[in-house]
Structures are given as C-alpha cells and as structure tokens.
Design a protein that fits this description.
Layout lengths: L1 H21 L2 H6 L5 H15 L13 H20 L5 H4 L19
Helix pairs in contact: 3-4
Length: 111
C-alpha cells in the first residue's frame, strides 16, 4: 500500500512542479533576455491550447485534452531550466541532504 501512496505522491509532486512552472511563463515572456524563438514557442503553444482547432478534437471522449497537456508539458520541459531563475529564492534552493545532522542530543536550559 505504501508503494501506491509513494507513486501518487510522486505524481502529485510532478503535477505541482508543472503548474508552478506554468505560472512563471508571464515573467519568462516579459524577460528581455529570453530568446525570441523560445518566446514564440511558448506563445504558439498557448494559442494551440486555447484555440478550438486541435489534432484531437476536445469533445472526443475527453481525449482532446491529452494533446494539449502533452504539448504544454513538452514546452515546459524544453525551458524548465530557464524557468528556475524566476522562482522566489526560498523555493528555488535545492534541499541539500549532506547538511542534515542526525542523532543530535541537546539540552535546553531555561533560566
């Protein structure tokens, strides 16, 4: 049962990271240092998702949203490293497992 929970947590974490990075797209597009072809890629991806014309039509058993999700996921994965610099500093810092101190005994003296 814990394996199923672990897979669910992994999936939820990946979904949360994707959603968080989608939220960074406006800052990415406004940055003058972003290459123009990458901006065009993002804008065309957004236009494809919101347009009524799809490779798989949206009303077809809900499968039409799959191509949209795949396209957005692909675009985010292509620019993922660049989006990291737009995260607030406390979020973007990686957790360093080397700095964990285990089995520490301590005493609190209260005066």
């Amino acid at each position: 049962m814990s394996r199923g929970r672990s897979n669910k947590q992994t999936w939820l974490r990946a979904a949360w990271i994707l959603i968080r990075k989608i939220g960074l797209l406006p800052r990415y597009l406004k940055d003058p240092q972003t290459l123009i072809w990458k901006k065009i890629m993002v804008v065309l991806g957004i236009v494809y998702v919101v347009s009524p014309f799809d490779i798989l039509p949206d009303p077809v058993l809900g499968l039409g949203f799959i191509d949209d999700a795949v396209l957005i996921t692909y675009i985010i994965s292509r620019i993922s490293d660049e989006l990291e610099k737009y995260l607030p500093s406390e979020i973007s810092k990686e957790f360093d497992k080397e700095k964990i101190i285990d089995d520490v005994d301590y005493k609190i003296d209260d005066e």
